[in-house]
Every structure is written in C-alpha cells, then in structure tokens.
Design goal:
Blueprint (H helix, E strand, L loop, with lengths): L5 H9 L2 H8 L9 H40 L8 E11 L4 E4 L10 E3 L1 H7 L6 E8 L11 E9 L4 H5 L9 E2 L14 H9 L7 E6 L5 H15 L4 E9 L1 H10 L3 E6 L4 H20 L3 E7 L1 H11 L17 H7 L3 E3 L4 E9 L5 H10 L5 E4 L2 H5 L12 E2 L8 H15 L3 H14 L3 H11 L5
Parallel strand pairs: 3-5, 7-12, 7-13, 8-9, 8-10, 10-12
Antiparallel strand pairs: 1-2, 1-4, 2-3, 4-5, 6-11, 11-12, 13-14
Helix pairs in contact: 9-10, 14-16
Length: 457
C-alpha cells in the first residue's frame, strides 16, 4: 500500500485515475480507454510493417527510374558505366524478349529485353536491332544470366522513331501475284526452264513442291535458289531447313549466298519451331519496309511434325496421331505468303512429303493441299527411271497463270497443255525435254511449239 498525505487522500477521494496519476507522476489507464489502447498496441506492428514496405517500394521506384534514365541517356551521363555494342534479331516470347546475337537459335550471348522496353521502343519480333548493353562494373556480381539492353541505336537500319511509324503486315492488302520471278538461267539448266513453263512463280506466290522420297526435291530447291539469286538480285532470299541432315545444311550454305537458317534433326522439336517462327517474322519485317522476300522451306511436313511434338496437347487427335492444334502454326507460316497492294511481297515455296508410308504425313499434306496457289508435283516413277527433273507436267500448275504470262505466251502454253494432256507422265516430260534441248531459250521453245502444234479453237 501507498501512504498518501492527507491533502492527497482528500483530493483522491473525489478524483479519477488521472488525478492520482498526476499526483504520483505516473500514467494510469482510464477505464474507458483501456480497450482502445490495447487495440493501438496490436496495430503498431502492422503499421510499422506497412511503413517499411512503402519505404522499400519508393526506393525501388526511384532506382528503376534511374536505370531508365541511364538507358535513355545511352550511358553518356552514366559515369563509370561501360557500354558494349550488340546487334541481332529480336525474338519476342510470351513474357520476355531476347536479341539473338548468334543467329536464329538461342545462344549464351543473347541480350535480355523487357516487354516494357519492347513497347516503349516500338519493337516487333524479327526486327534487326542494334544497340548497347551495360557491362558489369569491376567487383560487381552478375545477378542475371543475360545482359539487359539499355539503348537502341537502330531498328532495321532506321532510327527507333522512324521504326514506330512503319506499316503493320497484318493490315496490308493481299493480291494475286502479277510479276513473274523468272527461273530460266541457261540453255542447259532444264529444271528452271521446265518450272517457268508448267508452274510459273510470281512475286507473292504460295507454292508447294509435292515430292515422294528420293525424287530430287532438294536439288530442285537448290536450283530455284540459284535461279532467284541470278535473275532477281533485288529479292531477299531466305532458305529455312527444318529437321534436316547436317551435311545437306553445309551443302546448301556452300551453294546459296542468301540466308540459310537451319535446325538439324539432332536438335529438339522446340528448336525447329523457334527457328521457323523467327524466320517468318524476320521476313514479315522486311516486307513491311517494301522489300520482296522469297522463303524456301524444306519441309512443311517436318515442321508440322515438330509442332505436333512441341505444342501442348489439345485433346483432339486426328487420324495418324496429329493433334488438331498442331497444324495451326504451320498454316500461319505458309499463309503469310502474299503479294501486297501497298508494295512488297512475300513468296513462300515449301516442300511437302507424300508416299512415305506414314498416315501422319498423308493427313498433313491433305490439310495443306488446297492452301497454295502453285503446285509442282514430282514423280517417284520418273525418278526411278532416272528421268530428271522428275516433274509431273500434267499435275503441276499455277492458279491465275494468265496474270504471269503475256497473252501470246499464254495462247502457246494452252496449245502445249492440250498436247501434253493426251500423253502419259513419261511421254509428256520426255517431249518437253527433247524440245528444250533443241532450243536455247524458252522464248525459242514457245516459237517452236507455235510452228509445230496445230491450232485448236
């Protein structure tokens, strides 16, 4: 007990706890405020935690703003920051992006790009980007596996400001091909001469080379590539080899001067799909700039197989074990071919395998059968008899060929078609090859046909 002086006892008799506390110089809780004080004490840890998290978020926001400022200034005001120049093809994924610096496949020297910077700089998948990355300072630990892009100097040879105002591929107007890509190179090169006659190729063509195994498909693709390089040097040529043998990749690179983008059969299916998607996006970006681009794909069947393995299962399986959703990405690739009203064109000539004994290959070919506007059919029977090029002249053709031929050439070609229609595969091809050997050019061949073929009205 505490003995209080008399004056204090008298004052305390009528005073509350606050008066007693004031006399004793201590704090005594009032009865009505006890619950409120306990609640405040319980809320104090939570309040301190909120204040701490707010301070951290503000600090992170300031640091992020500083990093963006350093990136916009390009390191000129960055003090000790050292920048290294980089260049490559931009590959945009679902939640991140990379600049592929060593080709079209992922590599250890790729550069990371945030999606925020992709939107801020107006970048698109397939862009050829040149810029700079910040190198780690001396003694600074590398926190990320990839260096981040901090500055963009050019996009497809333009400034970033110019690149933002370019056209968008999906909003351009597709038309039928109206300008022919001449394949004829020399009198002794019979394959491109036959293609010019029976299945002419125009700028913006979507063509299929339908081939059984060992029918000379690869040789025809190589000769088409060489003919395009010789006759159409203004065209940007890209050869995409998917699930191919390594020695054939080396052979193609030694023959073709254009871009050869390859993923050999010893790589996973995801690499095949990545290469094909980035290649077609690169072609679209070039077409947006008004260029004429030719993509030779070998083969559409193997690309569809790769998507069938790599794509997540949808639960709907077609005959042959083909997932229903696996055929959409290859169709998107093949369907990108078009001649554009606003300028530029994208030509895709892809090979499709038939007569392989696989039900899957048969289903894939049937899905793409009516999507092209040019078809070049190869014959296994002609190849077995060593008659090359093993082209089935009656089964090959181009839709709206009257837009590619001159009127005089078209009338003579119709005459030739009527004659070839009465012959079988071998006789028809041998007749064409014999007449080609007698002439030095296709123009001379057509004049010979005009003279020797009776007119049928």
């Amino acid at each position: 007990t505490i003995d209080l002086p008399p004056t204090t006892k008298e004052a305390g008799a009528d005073a509350g706890p606050s008066a007693v506390g004031a006399i004793l110089d201590i704090e005594l809780p009032e009865g009505d405020n006890t619950a409120e004080t306990q609640r405040e004490r319980r809320e104090q840890p939570r309040r301190r935690k909120l204040e701490r998290s707010e301070r951290i978020s503000n600090r992170e926001r300031r640091e992020r703003g500083d990093r963006q400022d350093r990136g916009q200034r390009g390191g000129r005001e960055g003090g000790d920051d050292q920048l290294a120049p980089i260049a490559g093809i931009l590959d945009v994924q679902e939640n991140h992006a990379f600049v592929r610096t060593s080709g079209y496949l992922p590599g250890s020297n790729d550069v990371y790009v945030t999606l925020g910077n992709v939107r801020r700089w107006g970048l698109r998948a397939g862009d050829a980007v040149a810029g700079a990355v910040r190198l780690p300072r001396e003694g600074e630990r590398q926190r990320q596996k990839y260096n981040a892009l901090v500055r963009v100097d050019s996009v497809n040879g333009m400034t970033p400001e110019e690149a933002k105002s370019r056209r968008e591929f999906g909003k351009l107007t597709p038309l039928y091909p109206s300008e022919q890509l001449r394949m004829e190179t020399s009198a002794k090169a019979y394959t491109p001469r036959v293609i010019d006659l029976v299945a002419p190729v125009g700028k913006g063509q979507r063509g299929l080379i339908v081939s059984p195994p060992k029918a000379g498909k690869t040789m025809i693709i190589q000769q088409i590539a060489k003919a395009i390089e010789l006759n159409n040097p203004e065209v940007h040529l890209m050869v995409v080899l998917v699930d191919e043998r390594p020695e054939e990749v080396t052979d193609m690179r030694s023959i073709v001067k254009g871009e050869v983008i390859a993923s050999t059969f010893d790589r996973p299916a995801s690499d095949h799909t990545t290469v094909a998607e980035l290649a077609i996006e690169r072609a679209k970006r070039l077409v947006e700039l008004g260029q004429d681009v030719v993509v030779l794909l070998d083969s559409l069947t193997r690309l569809s197989r790769a998507y069938n393995l790599a794509a997540p299962a949808s639960g709907r399986i077609l005959s042959g074990g083909v997932d229903a959703s696996a055929l959409y990405p290859p169709k998107k690739f093949f369907g990108a071919a078009r001649n554009l009203k606003e300028g530029g064109s994208l030509t895709i000539i892809a090979s499709a395998l038939v007569e392989t004994g696989s039900k899957m290959d048969e289903v894939i070919f049937e899905e793409f059968k009516g999507t092209g506007n040019m078809e070049l059919r190869l014959s296994r029977q002609l190849a077995d008899r060593r008659i090359f090029p093993a082209i089935d002249v009656n089964a090959s053709g181009t839709r709206r060929e009257e837009m590619l031929f001159k009127p005089e050439e078209l009338r003579i070609m119709w005459k030739l078609r009527r004659v070839l229609g009465t012959l079988d595969q071998q006789s028809g091809l041998e007749l064409v090859l014999d007449k080609l050997k007698e002439t030095q050019s296709n123009a001379e061949f057509l004049m010979l046909v005009q003279k020797t073929t009776p007119s049928v009205e």
